[in-house]
Amino acid sequence: MNKPVGKNRILEIKNLKTWFPIKRGILARTVGFVRAVDGVSLYIKKGETLGLVGESGCGKTTLGRTILGLEKAREGGILYDGKELFALKSYEVRELRKRMQIIFQDPLSSLNPRMNIMDIVIEGLVEFNMIKDSRKDHARKLMNEVGLDEDALYRYPHEFSGGQRQRINIARAISLRPDFILCDEPVSALDVSVQAQVINLLMDLREKNNLSYLFISHDLSVVSHIANRVAVMYMGKIVEHGPTGDIINAPMHPYTKALIAAVPVVGVDKRERVVLKGSTPSLSLPPQGCRFNTRCSEVMEVCKKKEPCEIKTGSRQVWCHLYRS
Ligand SMILES: Nc1ncnc2c1ncn2[C@@H]1O[C@H](COP(=O)(O)OP(=O)(O)O)[C@@H](O)[C@H]1O
Ligand SMILES: [Mg+2]
Questions:
Q1: What pTM did the predictor assign?
Q2: 57 alpha carbon to ligand 2 midpoint, in Å?
Q3: How far apart, in whole angstroms, are the C-alpha atoms of residue 305 and residue 289?
Q4: Which residue range forms the structural domain that includes residue 195?
Q5: What's the total number of domains in the chain?
Q6: Which atom of ligand 1 is the closest one to the Cα of 184?
Q7: Which residues lie closer than 8 Å to 125 by C-beta, 6 or more apart?
Q8: Mind listing the pLDDT tens digit for each residue in 271-316?
Q9: Whose CA is nearest to atom 4 of ligand 1?
Q10: Which residues line the pocket of ligand 1, CB cutoff 6 A?
Q11: Residue 66: which CATH number?
């Protein structure tokens, strides 16, 4: 991690690995590992959104949680605004926590049912002793920012719709004026019509506050609306990465092609259907060679033996033997 890092990057991850031990027997011996994140490198620029897509169970949430310090990395490094996260002292980490926030998929379970909306949205401000004038003024301002009625301040989470609850979560997430928000499937539990409203709100807030997002979703069509760049994850690894338009319009990796064929993306012609065969192999025993070889429609002999290296073409990277020169 000694290389100088672009000043415009809020986050830079190098070869990150997060494995979960599998314990067996009365002595709880470690007999193997679930390799949820297995050597991921990526970066996010200030004011930019990186979309992270892939099937359920491929390690997206674990990657996000490792960035926020909620899971322990086994290997690799994370630079946040140029600072090596794993080298920070605990009080420095606490300061940084303010700047890194999270929005989850399920808006209801992340809201305390016994707290009213005012207490929920200013909870972080109270914790960090940042209330200068009246609590209500802070709360009102936050409600305005996320498009909620001020009357709602004294009501409770169960009185709101899914979309409104997600707005409450967003108000809480922006209350400490963060510069990075991890959005983990933030609209996956919402109706399609409501999804668009919440995405628009997130984009508005990004513009106004120069926020950066890591936007996790299993749905490429959702990501295509908000992300500047997309990283495609399969079994703990990134298999393709590039500008959103390039990934959607001209996917290179057979896995990306299959993901795109599986969801209708607005404004994109129907393309040849690539159907994903079978289910994901176990993360504790990844296939030899390319991890996707057991399901790939274009599999070759080499794919079963050798792990693909990074192939770079312009601003795109793909890890696939099809593109070897
Ligand atoms: N705390 C944990 N302990 C053990 N295994 C876990 C834990 N959290 C996640 N996993 C496993 O790691 C893999 C990746 O999970 P996750 O990151 O939640 O995937 P995604 O968010 O892409 O659906 C899954 O196989 C999951 O079962
Ligand atoms: Mg997840």
A1: 0.93
A2: 7
A3: 4
A4: 9-280
A5: 1
A6: 21
A7: 131, 138, 175, 176
A8: 555 667 778 889 999 999 999 999 999 999 999 999 999 999 999 9
A9: 20
A10: 20, 34, 36, 54, 56-62, 283
A11: 3.40.50.300
